[in-house]
């Protein structure tokens, strides 16, 4: 018996397994960790990259792309959220966070990299198929096709209010900073549109890696023998690493004779060390020393002068990092666990004191891509009493004629000038010292006497330094 002829089947699309792209899967995992566990990208990423490289089939270029995708997506999240909002039919808070992460990664590839449009969309859809499933991959595909209709400038024109209507909101959306941060940076920077825009642009760029050759332990000549090394801009101890230079591969860094340190931090330590004082110069204090970058430079400079550095830090594990950074210092030093608001040392016992106080870190946004979204204006209220108490300790710990450096890695006026002005008023036997001449060769330092460094003007973090002499 012959079989009844079957009705020809409609040829369905054969199922194709999603293509696993290790770079994008890793980038997605890092974003999830930052989102879900409040992790820091700069801490989450290195172990993920190490594990991927150890598994094999993941080279330096893959690592560079994964890093760019994670950092770029986080930095530009404000702009990208505004774009995605225009392309989905519900409020963003109703989009599942993992879906939003895949979309943001896709938007960054479309609007913030040179990856061709079709590759950016198809790689994102494949990623969605792997980590979200086929159904949601269709949604990702539809949204990203809408995003691909304009470039970044085109989108900014559509989603940011015109500058003339609302300058701060325009800058916030266009340059992906929270509005309150734009406002605070602008207050501190002063000036018109050009300066603040340059600053916001600089905050969105990847900072160079800068090394410090700790005096007496290494030299810039030694570091400059590295292939990727070029001289620093301002600090006589600084060497910059061009793209691709790996500090961990440098002997002097591995054995602590040199370290990774932004030039702004080097300048702060140098200015304090070089400020003129009369009388003895034997005892130096770093009252907020962890993790020890400035302490290591100060200790090396102190050693050249036969002075001792006491490095104090409240948190034991951070004091441990200080001890590691100072290990091998050619001169005398001591590391103690101590609360700077209840100092275990006698008043008036130091010739030089650094208080590099805990702060919002708004001056280091280049390095911590997610920090701008985590900080809240209320954080300032939390830091204010601690910053004042620590500066008060510094002013009491220094001897008459000695010098205090008050530093923050934030340019927010509430953490810089407001603290210094209050404390000078409360301690009549103190005076501000012009810090500018102590930053030799550094330009654009404003009216003084304190100093505010800026990423767009100096290529450094936005470090602040006030030098204060105790006069009685
Ligand atoms: C901005 S960081 C200092 C960075 C350090 N100077 C460097 O260059 O590596 C501030 C440090 O102060 C510490 N700290 C916070 N409260 C403190 C207190 N009451 N007394 C002493 N240190 C404190 C924090 O744990 C943190 O390590």
From TrEMBL:
<keyword id="KW-0949">S-adenosyl-L-methionine</keyword>
<dbReference type="InterPro" id="IPR018314">
    <property type="entry name" value="RsmB/NOL1/NOP2-like_CS"/>
</dbReference>
<feature type="domain" description="SAM-dependent MTase RsmB/NOP-type">
    <location>
        <begin position="185"/>
        <end position="471"/>
    </location>
</feature>
<dbReference type="InterPro" id="IPR029063">
    <property type="entry name" value="SAM-dependent_MTases_sf"/>
</dbReference>
<dbReference type="InterPro" id="IPR006027">
    <property type="entry name" value="NusB_RsmB_TIM44"/>
</dbReference>
<dbReference type="InterPro" id="IPR001678">
    <property type="entry name" value="MeTrfase_RsmB-F_NOP2_dom"/>
</dbReference>
<dbReference type="InterPro" id="IPR049560">
    <property type="entry name" value="MeTrfase_RsmB-F_NOP2_cat"/>
</dbReference>
<feature type="binding site">
    <location>
        <position position="339"/>
    </location>
    <ligand>
        <name>S-adenosyl-L-methionine</name>
    </ligand>
</feature>
<protein>
    <submittedName>
        <fullName>rRNA cytosine-C5-methyltransferase</fullName>
    </submittedName>
</protein>
<dbReference type="InterPro" id="IPR023267">
    <property type="entry name" value="RCMT"/>
</dbReference>
<comment type="similarity">
    <text>Belongs to the class I-like SAM-binding methyltransferase superfamily. RsmB/NOP family.</text>
</comment>
<dbReference type="Pfam" id="PF01189">
    <property type="entry name" value="Methyltr_RsmB-F"/>
</dbReference>
<keyword id="KW-0489">Methyltransferase</keyword>
<dbReference type="GO" id="GO:0006355">
    <property type="term" value="P:regulation of DNA-templated transcription"/>
</dbReference>
<keyword id="KW-0808">Transferase</keyword>
<dbReference type="GO" id="GO:0001510">
    <property type="term" value="P:RNA methylation"/>
</dbReference>
<comment type="function">
    <text>May act as RNA methyltransferase.</text>
</comment>
<dbReference type="GO" id="GO:0003723">
    <property type="term" value="F:RNA binding"/>
</dbReference>
<feature type="binding site">
    <location>
        <position position="356"/>
    </location>
    <ligand>
        <name>S-adenosyl-L-methionine</name>
    </ligand>
</feature>
<feature type="binding site">
    <location>
        <position position="313"/>
    </location>
    <ligand>
        <name>S-adenosyl-L-methionine</name>
    </ligand>
</feature>
<feature type="binding site">
    <location>
        <begin position="288"/>
        <end position="294"/>
    </location>
    <ligand>
        <name>S-adenosyl-L-methionine</name>
    </ligand>
</feature>
<feature type="active site" description="Nucleophile">
    <location>
        <position position="409"/>
    </location>
</feature>
<dbReference type="GO" id="GO:0008173">
    <property type="term" value="F:RNA methyltransferase activity"/>
</dbReference>
<keyword id="KW-0694">RNA-binding</keyword>
<dbReference type="InterPro" id="IPR035926">
    <property type="entry name" value="NusB-like_sf"/>
</dbReference>
<dbReference type="Pfam" id="PF01029">
    <property type="entry name" value="NusB"/>
</dbReference>
């Amino acid at each position: 018996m012959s079989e009844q002829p079957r009705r020809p089947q409609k040829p369905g699309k054969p199922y194709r397994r999603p293509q696993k792209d290790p770079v994008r899967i890793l980038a997605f995992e890092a974003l999830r960790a930052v989102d879900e566990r409040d992790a820091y990208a700069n801490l989450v990423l290195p172990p993920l990259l190490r594990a991927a490289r150890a598994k094999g089939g993941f080279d330096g270029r893959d690592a560079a792309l994964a890093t760019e995708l994670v950092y770029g997506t986080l930095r530009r999240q404000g702009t990208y959220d505004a774009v995605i909002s225009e392309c989905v039919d519900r409020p963003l808070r109703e989009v599942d966070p993992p879906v939003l992460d895949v979309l943001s990664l896709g938007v960054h590839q479309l609007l913030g990299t040179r990856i061709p449009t079709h590759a950016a969309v198809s790689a994102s859809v494949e990623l969605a198929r792997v980590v979200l499933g086929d159904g949601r991959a269709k949604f990702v595909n539809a949204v990203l096709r809408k995003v691909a209709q304009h470039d970044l400038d085109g989108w900014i024109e559509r989603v940011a209010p015109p500058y003339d209507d609302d300058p701060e909101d325009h800058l916030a959306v266009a340059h992906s900073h929270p509005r309150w941060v734009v406002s605070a940076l602008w207050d501190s920077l002063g000036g018109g549109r050009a300066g603040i825009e340059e600053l916001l642009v600089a905050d969105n760029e990847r900072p160079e890696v800068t090394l410090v050759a700790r005096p007496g332990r290494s030299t810039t000549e030694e570091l400059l023998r590295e292939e990727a090394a070029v001289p620093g801009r301002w600090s006589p101890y600084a060497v910059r690493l061009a793209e691709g230079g790996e500090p961990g591969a440098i002997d002097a860094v591995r054995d602590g004779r040199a370290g990774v340190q932004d030039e702004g931090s080097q300048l702060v330590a140098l200015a304090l060390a070089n400020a003129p004082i009369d009388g003895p110069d034997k005892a130096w204090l770093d009252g907020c020393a962890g993790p020890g970058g400035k302490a290591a430079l100060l200790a090396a400079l102190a050693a050249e002068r036969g002075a001792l550095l006491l490095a104090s830090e409240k948190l034991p594990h951070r004091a441990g990092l200080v001890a590691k950074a100072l290990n091998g210092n050619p001169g005398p030093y001591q590391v103690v666990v101590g609360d700077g608001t209840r100092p275990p040392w006698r008043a008036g016992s130091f010739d030089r004191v650094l208080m590099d106080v805990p702060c919002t870190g708004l001056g280091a946004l280049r390095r911590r891509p997610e920090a701008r979204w985590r900080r809240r204006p209320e954080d300032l209220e939390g830091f204010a009493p601690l910053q004042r108490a620590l500066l008060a300790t510094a002013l009491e710990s220094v001897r008459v004629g000695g010098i205090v450096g008050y530093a923050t890695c934030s340019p927010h006026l509430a953490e810089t000038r407001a603290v210094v002005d209050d404390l000078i008023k409360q301690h009549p036997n103190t005076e501000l010292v012009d810090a500018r001449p102590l930053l030799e060769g550094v330009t654009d330092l404003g009216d003084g006497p304190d100093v505010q460094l800026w990423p767009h003007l100096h290529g450094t973090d936005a470090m602040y330094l006030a030098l204060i002499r105790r006069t009685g």
